[in-house]
Description:
Recoverin, domain 1
Amino acid sequence: MGSRASTLLREEEIEEIKKETGFSHSQITRLYSRFTSLDKGENGTLSREDFQRIPELAINPLGDRIINAFFPEGEDQVNFKGFMRTLAHFRPIEDNEKNKNLPASEPLNSRTNKLLFAFRLYDLDRDNKISRDELLQVLEKVDVEQKMSIRFLH
């Protein structure tokens, strides 16, 4: 699988992704391998269903919202570059110090971009506001998850 991933991803694509996301060459290659293993349709894109097969997302109370973050509005597939752009929000901020050669624009994993990303997880109707109902939905999901965990532990 690893050799398949490295042969399908061209060096110039890796360099472009490195510049945009701050991921290293080896991280990109490893994530491409994971991407292709999730791509059950073998068409170079992932669907929501592909993401739902990831156990960590399936059990996360905010899993649906995290999955939706990978898909631009109106889209039902994400390609590798879009996948990497979204994952870049999860990189530690300290990594920016190691990647001083990135473009002058603010890194995807900057504090500001992380806050915007987190905000969008709560703003379900994408009206640039978090309504009381949207916040309650999140709190209820987390509360249900906590109650289930407590029952499991006892």
